[in-house]
Structures are given as C-alpha cells and as structure tokens.
Amino acid sequence: MKVMFIIPHLGSGGAERVVANLCNGLADYERIVLIFENIIKHNVDAQIISINSPATQSLFKKLLNFPVRYLKIRKLKEEIKPDFVVSLLEPANLFNVLTKLSNQKTILSFRSNYTATLQEDPFFGKGITRIILKILYTLAFKTIYNRADLMVAISRDVAEDLIKNHGINSDKIKVIYNPYPIDEIRQLAEEPLGSYEEIFKHPVLITAGRLTKQKGQWYVLRIFKALKEKHKDLKLVILGEGELKEYLVGLSEELGLKTYVWDRDELSESFDVYFLSFQKNPFKFIARSKLFVFPSLWEGFPNALVESMACSVCVVSSDCRSGPREILAPNMDFNYQTQKPEFAEYGIIMPVFDVKYKTANEPLEEKEIMWVETIDRLLEDESLRKHYSEKAKQRAEDFRIEKIVQEWKEVLR
Fold it and tell me: Could you read off the pLDDT of 132-184 as tens digits, one per residue?
C-alpha cells in the first residue's frame, strides 16, 4: 500500500515532526512525502519530492502559484498512484482535496483551532490580503473540504471547532492525537550537552517552538525578567527560529537581560537568556531544565509539550485553544479555560495571554504576575516539581508512536 503525505515543507515545526514520526512508524507502507519547497530538517524514512513552489506573502504571487501547484500535485498523484493521500497544514489541505482522484482516499489533517488561526496567523497576511484569504478559506471549509474522504483532527477541541464553526461534516471527522517516539526521545535526552554544559550548571527555564506570534515567547522574557530579581542564578533557554527573532532579541536586551544569540555571540555561562536556534536534539536541553514553560496563544496539539513530558520535566502551560488542557487535564471539560493557576493532574495550566505584542517598559499584567508567582513556587518547592515530573512521564506514555500508528492504520486501509 502506498501513502503520500503532502506538507508545505519539512522544516522545524510540529507538523513536520509528525510526518517524520508517521513515516518512521508506517514501515509496512510505501511512503512518499510531497513538499512545496525544499526545506528538510528532519530524518524522514520516505521518498521526498519537492515541487519547488515556495511560500510568498505577495497576493499576486500566491495567485500565480495556485495553478502551478495544482497541476504539479495532480500530475504526481496520477503518476505515483498512492492509495492514500494525507495532507497537513494549509495550503496543502486545499490542494489535496482540489486534486482528489476517485481511486485514492483523500485525508485532511486539521492541526489548529481554525477560528483562532484565521484571526491571528501571519500566513494570512495583512489588510486586504488577509480579508480576501479569510473569505476564501471560510468558503473552502464549507464548500470544498467536505469532499475529502476523511478529516483527522488532532484534538477534540479542533474537531468541535471544525464542526460548529466551519460546517465540516461530523461523520467524516476522526480525532487522532500526534504520535511520539517516546523511547527515542528518552535516549536522545541522555546525550551529552557538549559546549552547552556550563549553562545547565545553573537552574534553567526552557521553552521551544518557532519564534512566531503564535508561540508568545515575549511573555516568557518579561516573566523571566521578574523572576531574576529573586532567582539571580536562573537562566532562560529558547529553542527555535523564526520571523520574530529580531523583536525577541531586542526585547530581551531592552529588559536589561544579557542575551546570547546563536549566530552572533561566543557561548559562555555569563548570559541570562540563550537563543539557541532550532536543535535536532532539543531533548538533551529540556531534560536538564527545571521547568518547561509553554506560553502559546493558540495551538492545535502542541508537540513540544508532550515531548517535554516524555523527558520527565514539569510543564507550565497556557490554557490556549487547543491541546494543553486535553494533555494535562484529560478528564476535565476541554472547553473550559482557566482564569487562575490550575495545578492539574499532569501539569500546571495557566491563563492564556492576550494576542498582543509587548515592550520592555510596560508593567506586568495580572496574568503575567500569576505566571511569575507560580513559576517561583515551583522553583522553590522541589517536591512539587518532582511530583509533576513523574506525572508528566506517566502521561507521555499515552502518546507513544506505537499506539497512535495503530489508530492511523485503522484509517489507512
């Protein structure tokens, strides 16, 4: 059996890791990964084909790209003849269903709460570009996407959003959580740190994810600055790269924090904040940190959260839509959002921040103060931190790749 995955690229994002994990888990299928632009940062056990059609913010170029992508994808489907075609992220989902062939099962993977995504994601541009694309995508949900054979939502919240707000046929939706190679993660977590060893002789807060609006890392910088007043030896490590690099580095420096940037500075233990870029093995850093801090403003199902839990690290996460509550408090109503710190079954859930950039001289908001106080408590209370480290390790077992791949095999037959 042949399965083709369609995704814009294989860069450093969470969906890209999911494709890599699924390809490695579906060893008894012939796997092909079709990407729009030749960015590959994961070891993927599959044939990779690039159609060389990079993303663009220009509306004119987007319109030019459309027929080119359509024709190339359709031709490859006809030539390769996959039995199943699974797409992840936009615009891969759109092109997958538009190029649907009758003898192939078309599966769309929805990975975000699209109500939040359509409102905030920079992919949709600004001004008239955003308005036009939002209209087109809203129409696409209602009139095009229901033509797919199946739609896989990566959380119950994502599934509910698709049904209630975007007109998706509930009979065609199945919830399958992301798969994780738990044993491999734990093995990688034991690798030596090398030149980074000196940093982790100090207590470290860590966060990981693209340096992009969705991830809200500027809030962590402001919170960290407040924590440094009491915890003088504390370090902050930020893993990831992206379009907000300049803003985040600038904010860190304006906050008076001595800031290391991977492509600018010589590494030493004298810095407060470390921007360490994308790391092929982030787990060796996470496993040696006191806390994993996750300030995302919106999500679908956050890979970094589960991966940190697999490293037996206590996690402090925003209660954003969607995913964190389903991971950390699976027995609670996933529609609920907290307005105060919540010490849930498998981790600490915090009020989600506003989608609003901040400057260094703005005073901390009430929510930021809550985060400061909660993280301070966890840094001080080692027994509480260890309790949640054990609970995190326990919960990560539910997302083992072996278990999740079996759910995908039920679909791919």
Answer: 777 777 787 778 999 999 999 999 999 998 898 888 889 999 999 999 999 99
Distance CA 319, CA 324 (A): 6
- Range(s) of the domain holding residue 164: 2-176
Q: What is the pLDDT of residues 300-358, one digit of tens each?
A: 899 999 999 999 999 999 999 889 999 999 999 998 999 999 999 999 999 999 999 99
How distant, in Å, are the alpha carbons of 20, 123, 224, 364 from that of 220? 29, 23, 6, 11
In this predicted model, what pLDDT tens digit does every residue of 371-390 receive, in sequence order? 999 999 999 999 999 999 99
Q: Which of 400, 8, 28 is nearest to 19 (CA)?
A: 8
Q: Are residues 209 and 148 in the same domain?
A: no
Question: What is d(CA 374, CA 249) in angstroms, rounded to the nearest whole number?
Answer: 25
Please list the residues that pair with 150 across neighbouring strands.
107
Residues in the chain: 413
Q: How far is the C-alpha of 257 from the C-alpha of 228, rounded, in Å?
A: 9
Picking from 145, 161, 176, the residue at the C-terminal end of a domain is: 176
CATH code of the domain containing 386: 3.40.50.2000
Q: CA 294, CA 307: separation in Å to the nearest integer?
A: 12
